[in-house]
Protein backbone atom coordinates (compact mmCIF):
# COMPACT_ATOMS: atom_id res chain seq x y z
CA UNK A 1 0.00 0.00 0.00
CA UNK A 2 2.80 2.38 0.90
CA UNK A 3 4.52 1.77 -2.46
CA UNK A 4 1.28 2.35 -4.38
CA UNK A 5 0.59 5.53 -2.45
CA UNK A 6 4.14 6.76 -3.01
CA UNK A 7 3.93 5.91 -6.72
CA UNK A 8 0.65 7.84 -7.09
CA UNK A 9 2.11 10.87 -5.34
CA UNK A 10 5.18 10.71 -7.54
CA UNK A 11 3.09 10.52 -10.72
CA UNK A 12 0.92 13.43 -9.60
CA UNK A 13 4.00 15.51 -8.76
CA UNK A 14 5.58 14.77 -12.14
CA UNK A 15 2.31 15.61 -13.91
CA UNK A 16 2.06 18.93 -12.07
CA UNK A 17 5.67 19.78 -12.96
CA UNK A 18 4.98 18.95 -16.60
CA UNK A 19 1.88 21.19 -16.62
CA UNK A 20 3.83 24.01 -14.96
CA UNK A 21 6.63 23.67 -17.49
CA UNK A 22 4.13 23.79 -20.38
CA UNK A 23 2.55 26.92 -18.92
CA UNK A 24 5.94 28.59 -18.61
CA UNK A 25 6.81 27.74 -22.21
CA UNK A 26 3.51 29.13 -23.49
CA UNK A 27 3.96 32.28 -21.44
CA UNK A 28 7.48 32.70 -22.82
CA UNK A 29 6.18 32.23 -26.36
CA UNK A 30 3.48 34.87 -25.83
CA UNK A 31 6.08 37.31 -24.55
CA UNK A 32 8.24 36.57 -27.55
CA UNK A 33 5.38 37.52 -29.87
CA UNK A 34 4.45 40.70 -28.02
CA UNK A 35 7.92 42.00 -27.10
CA UNK A 36 10.37 43.30 -29.67
CA UNK A 37 13.83 41.95 -30.32
CA UNK A 38 15.86 44.67 -32.06
CA UNK A 39 18.04 44.19 -35.12
CA UNK A 40 20.11 46.52 -37.25
CA UNK A 41 17.84 46.94 -40.31
CA UNK A 42 14.65 48.28 -38.80
CA UNK A 43 12.97 51.53 -37.85
CA UNK A 44 11.71 51.55 -34.26
CA UNK A 45 9.20 54.23 -33.31
CA UNK A 46 7.58 54.48 -29.89
CA UNK A 47 4.04 55.88 -29.97
CA UNK A 48 1.64 56.84 -27.19
CA UNK A 49 -1.45 56.08 -29.29
CA UNK A 50 -2.32 55.29 -32.90
CA UNK A 51 -3.21 58.98 -33.27
CA UNK A 52 0.50 59.87 -33.23
CA UNK A 53 0.82 58.53 -36.78
CA UNK A 54 -1.97 60.66 -38.23
CA UNK A 55 -2.72 64.33 -38.82
CA UNK A 56 -4.76 65.86 -36.02
CA UNK A 57 -6.50 68.10 -38.60
CA UNK A 58 -7.93 65.17 -40.56
CA UNK A 59 -11.14 63.75 -39.00
CA UNK A 60 -11.47 60.78 -41.35
CA UNK A 61 -11.16 57.10 -40.46
CA UNK A 62 -7.71 55.49 -40.21
CA UNK A 63 -8.23 53.83 -43.61
CA UNK A 64 -8.25 57.24 -45.37
CA UNK A 65 -6.60 59.62 -42.95
CA UNK A 66 -3.51 61.72 -43.79
CA UNK A 67 -0.28 60.78 -42.04
CA UNK A 68 1.35 63.12 -39.56
CA UNK A 69 4.29 65.13 -40.91
CA UNK A 70 6.17 64.55 -37.64
CA UNK A 71 5.72 60.78 -38.06
CA UNK A 72 7.00 60.92 -41.65
CA UNK A 73 9.97 63.15 -40.75
CA UNK A 74 11.01 60.83 -37.93
CA UNK A 75 10.68 57.82 -40.24
CA UNK A 76 12.86 59.54 -42.86
CA UNK A 77 15.61 60.24 -40.35
CA UNK A 78 15.54 56.67 -39.09
CA UNK A 79 15.49 55.13 -42.61
CA UNK A 80 18.30 57.27 -44.06
CA UNK A 81 21.17 54.78 -43.59
CA UNK A 82 19.17 51.55 -43.73
CA UNK A 83 19.10 49.00 -46.51
CA UNK A 84 15.74 48.54 -48.25
CA UNK A 85 16.16 44.74 -48.27
CA UNK A 86 14.24 43.14 -45.38
CA UNK A 87 13.56 46.55 -43.83
CA UNK A 88 11.05 46.57 -40.99
CA UNK A 89 8.97 49.42 -39.56
CA UNK A 90 8.37 48.58 -35.90
CA UNK A 91 5.67 50.55 -34.11
CA UNK A 92 5.67 50.25 -30.33
CA UNK A 93 2.33 50.89 -28.62
CA UNK A 94 1.44 50.58 -24.89
CA UNK A 95 -0.06 47.14 -24.33
CA UNK A 96 -3.31 48.43 -22.82
CA UNK A 97 -3.96 50.68 -25.86
CA UNK A 98 -3.49 48.06 -28.57
CA UNK A 99 -6.37 47.14 -30.88
CA UNK A 100 -5.54 44.34 -33.34
CA UNK A 101 -8.41 45.17 -35.69
CA UNK A 102 -7.32 48.79 -35.99
CA UNK A 103 -3.70 47.72 -36.49
CA UNK A 104 -4.70 45.77 -39.60
CA UNK A 105 -6.42 48.87 -41.03
CA UNK A 106 -3.44 51.11 -40.15
CA UNK A 107 -0.91 48.72 -41.75
CA UNK A 108 -2.88 48.83 -45.00
CA UNK A 109 -3.15 52.63 -44.85
CA UNK A 110 0.61 53.01 -44.33
CA UNK A 111 1.41 50.60 -47.17
CA UNK A 112 -1.01 52.39 -49.53
CA UNK A 113 0.48 55.78 -48.63
CA UNK A 114 4.10 54.69 -49.18
CA UNK A 115 3.35 52.87 -52.45
CA UNK A 116 1.29 55.77 -53.84
CA UNK A 117 3.97 58.38 -53.11
CA UNK A 118 6.77 56.11 -54.36
CA UNK A 119 4.95 55.74 -57.68
CA UNK A 120 4.21 59.49 -57.94
CA UNK A 121 7.82 60.43 -57.20
CA UNK A 122 9.07 57.83 -59.68
CA UNK A 123 6.94 59.42 -62.43
CA UNK A 124 8.12 62.93 -61.43
CA UNK A 125 11.76 61.77 -61.45
CA UNK A 126 11.35 60.32 -64.94
CA UNK A 127 9.83 63.58 -66.20
CA UNK A 128 12.62 65.58 -64.55
CA UNK A 129 15.25 63.34 -66.16
CA UNK A 130 13.69 63.80 -69.62
CA UNK A 131 13.60 67.57 -69.03
CA UNK A 132 17.30 67.59 -68.10
CA UNK A 133 18.22 65.55 -71.20
CA UNK A 134 16.13 67.83 -73.46
CA UNK A 135 17.73 71.01 -72.06
CA UNK A 136 21.24 69.56 -72.41
CA UNK A 137 20.68 68.45 -76.02
CA UNK A 138 19.10 71.79 -76.99
CA UNK A 139 22.03 73.65 -75.38
CA UNK A 140 24.48 71.53 -77.37
CA UNK A 141 22.45 72.22 -80.52
CA UNK A 142 22.70 76.00 -79.92
CA UNK A 143 26.45 75.63 -79.32
CA UNK A 144 26.76 73.88 -82.67
CA UNK A 145 24.86 76.70 -84.40
CA UNK A 146 27.09 79.32 -82.75
CA UNK A 147 30.22 77.41 -83.83
CA UNK A 148 28.99 77.13 -87.44
CA UNK A 149 28.19 80.88 -87.55
CA UNK A 150 31.66 81.79 -86.26
CA UNK A 151 33.32 79.40 -88.69
CA UNK A 152 31.44 80.61 -91.78
CA UNK A 153 30.58 84.27 -91.00
CA UNK A 154 33.00 85.30 -88.27
CA UNK A 155 33.48 88.88 -89.59
CA UNK A 156 29.80 89.73 -90.10
CA UNK A 157 28.46 92.09 -87.39
CA UNK A 158 24.90 90.71 -87.38
CA UNK A 159 26.09 87.14 -87.10
CA UNK A 160 28.56 88.10 -84.38
CA UNK A 161 25.71 89.64 -82.32
CA UNK A 162 23.66 86.49 -82.84
CA UNK A 163 26.54 84.37 -81.52
CA UNK A 164 26.84 86.63 -78.45
CA UNK A 165 23.14 86.00 -77.68
CA UNK A 166 23.23 82.28 -78.42
CA UNK A 167 26.40 81.28 -76.57
CA UNK A 168 25.35 82.22 -72.99
CA UNK A 169 21.94 80.60 -73.48
CA UNK A 170 23.52 77.40 -74.81
CA UNK A 171 25.98 77.14 -71.89
CA UNK A 172 23.23 77.84 -69.38
CA UNK A 173 20.99 75.13 -70.88
CA UNK A 174 23.78 72.55 -70.91
CA UNK A 175 24.84 73.13 -67.31
CA UNK A 176 21.29 73.43 -66.02
CA UNK A 177 20.28 70.26 -67.86
CA UNK A 178 23.26 68.33 -66.46
CA UNK A 179 22.48 69.66 -62.97
CA UNK A 180 18.93 68.30 -63.26
CA UNK A 181 20.17 64.90 -64.49
CA UNK A 182 22.83 64.31 -61.84
CA UNK A 183 21.34 66.17 -58.86
CA UNK A 184 17.63 65.41 -58.93
CA UNK A 185 15.97 67.27 -56.07
CA UNK A 186 13.51 64.53 -55.07
CA UNK A 187 16.05 61.69 -55.11
CA UNK A 188 16.21 61.36 -51.28
CA UNK A 189 12.42 61.53 -51.03
CA UNK A 190 12.02 58.84 -53.69
CA UNK A 191 14.53 56.52 -51.99
CA UNK A 192 12.66 56.88 -48.68
CA UNK A 193 9.26 56.00 -50.14
CA UNK A 194 10.66 53.10 -52.15
CA UNK A 195 12.21 51.70 -48.97
CA UNK A 196 9.02 52.11 -46.98
CA UNK A 197 6.85 50.63 -49.74
CA UNK A 198 8.86 47.38 -49.43
CA UNK A 199 9.15 47.44 -45.62
CA UNK A 200 7.38 44.98 -43.34
CA UNK A 201 5.17 46.83 -40.85
CA UNK A 202 4.75 45.33 -37.37
CA UNK A 203 3.16 46.41 -34.10
CA UNK A 204 4.57 45.42 -30.71
CA UNK A 205 3.70 46.22 -27.12
CA UNK A 206 6.04 48.75 -25.55
Notes on the structure:
- This protein has 206 residues and is mostly helical.
- It has 5 helices and 3 strands; from the N terminus they run αβαβαααβ.
- It has helices at 2-34, 69-79, 100-153, 157-182, 187-198, and strands at 42-46, 88-93, 200-205.
- Strand 1, helix 2 (69-79) and strand 2 form a beta-alpha-beta unit.
- Helix 3 (100-153) runs antiparallel to helix 4 (157-182).
- The radius of gyration is 32 Å and the shape is elongated.
- The relative contact order is 0.14.
What is shown here, in short?
This protein has 206 residues and is mostly helical. The protein has helices at 2-34, 69-79, 100-153, 157-182, 187-198; strands at 42-46, 88-93, 200-205.
Helix content: 55-70%
Q: Count of DSSP E strands?
A: 3
Count of runs of 4 or more consecutive helical residues: 5
- Per the principal axes of the C-alpha atoms, what is the gross shape? elongated
Gyration radius (Cα, Å) is: 32 Å
| Cα separation of the termini | 55 Å
Could you state the order of secondary-structure elements as H and E?
HEHEHHHE
User: Which strand-content bin applies to the residues?
Assistant: 5-15%
Oligomer: single chain
**Structural class given helices, strands, pairing?**
mainly alpha
Uncertain segments are 1-11, 32-36
Main sheet makeup:
3 strands, parallel
Biggest sheet, spatial arrangement of strands: 1-2-3
**Nearest-integer average pLDDT:** 81
Amino acid sequence: MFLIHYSLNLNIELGLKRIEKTKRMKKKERKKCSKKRYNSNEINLRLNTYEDMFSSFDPRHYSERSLSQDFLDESKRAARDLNENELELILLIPKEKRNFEQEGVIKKRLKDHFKKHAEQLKIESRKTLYKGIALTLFGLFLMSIATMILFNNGKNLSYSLLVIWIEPASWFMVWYGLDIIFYMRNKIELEFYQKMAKAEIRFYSS
